[in-house]
Known about the structure:
It is built from seven helices and five strands. By secondary structure, it is α+β, with helices and mostly antiparallel strands. The chain folds into two domains: 3-84, Winged helix-like DNA-binding domain superfamily/Winged helix DNA-binding domain (Arc Repressor Mutant, subunit A); 90-168, no CATH class.
Amino acid sequence: MAFEDLLEDPVIQKYLHELVGPKGMPVAAAPPDGEVTDEELAEELDLELNDVRRALFILYENDLASYRRLRDEDSGWLTYLWTFEYDNIPENLEEEMYRLYDALEQRQEYERNHEFYLCEICSIRFEFGEAMDFGFECPECGSPLESMDNDRLVNSMDDRLDALEDELNIDADA
């Protein structure tokens, strides 16, 4: 998939934004062809050099950019030439989806195996043991804690897990 196609996808735009944040998004959204220095990017995009470097490092950590170093023979200074490698984005997104799936499975298990109590005034949720320690009274306002039905939450997690299984071609019964 070409850079242009990738960058027009709202999912990929959101992914890049989550990685580099608003200050780094101009760097992530405008990958040049070939190699470029951080100074050239900062000047071209009219950004602070530290913001450009931070974005490049985050992209590097996520296998979306690479660099090679050149040492100036006279001064000994190192120059970093950056290359963007957005071909890795689909694979990275798939890994993120698997991490989400695993975390959601763990959270669903936690929700199913615990009993919860809620302070309806403060909207604070307690596990059974905590509620018992507080005498089934909210430690913030003193209101009685009510037993909480989390079936809707667990069912929503079921729906999301099913959607992820379809997307990732996971056989949940296997």
